[in-house]
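Lecture notes, unit on protein representations.

Consider one protein chain, 288 amino acids long.
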Amino acid sequence: MQDGIFFLAAGSRIPTVMAAIFGLLIGSFLNVVIHRLPIMMQRESDNYVAHESGEPLPHTDRYNLLMPRSACPQCQYQIGISENVPIFRYLALCSKCKSSKTPVSARYPVVEALTGALSALLIWNFGSGWSGLASLVFLYLLIAMTFIDTETQLLPDDLTFPLLWIGLLLNLSGLFVSLHEAVIGAAAGYLSLWSIYWLFKLLTGKEGMGYGDFKLLAALGAWMGWKMLPIIILFSSLVGAVVGLALTVFFRYSRDKPIPFGPYLATAGLLALLYGHTIMETYFDFLA
């Protein structure tokens, strides 16, 4: 589908710079999502268990992505508006809380910088039309899932399902692929990892991955179609092998400790969105 005449094409500098700035701001919000969404899920689970047991609810205060205001987890010092400027607040405060001097995780500036840089890259490649704007939504959901899975070994349904349905809805008009390819991609993406999961479990008696990985690959298939799934699986396996080897060799990472697969799928999905078609065309030209 062609972008509207009011949108600028790929390679335009002004929307690329604007995307980078917007990405920094969104990155600040993604940090909130990464921190709070697992807590929200745990609180909801605790309340459900208490309700089913007839016990008082352990969490009755309001806690979501907007309330309460952001604060230091150690001293509860509330972060002011002037301290919410992406990246710069981290540098200005020397990576410490202004009140308690508690070290602030480097994840905050990393997420903001990564979101800004990748937002600029996507708009540079896709332009500021519908495909470019859709790719930003794709990116932001993947970044949130990547860091949540890294920290908690969870891929929340609150993120994987919206990514899946947004992909299918966008492809109703064939924004990235036809709806036919998107639906098959969603089903094949889920069933492929589901089959590997059960085969591995039958052979070893262990669980090699979580159900969130099935849903994430289904979502990637919904965005890019079934033809891109082999590339996504190949990319994620290669990235996972390299990172896993590096963690084992250089950081003494225990082989018994599980490594989340979601970040590798997310990385592979982004690479496939950017360069998948080029790789496929190069491969078929080589065969020809």
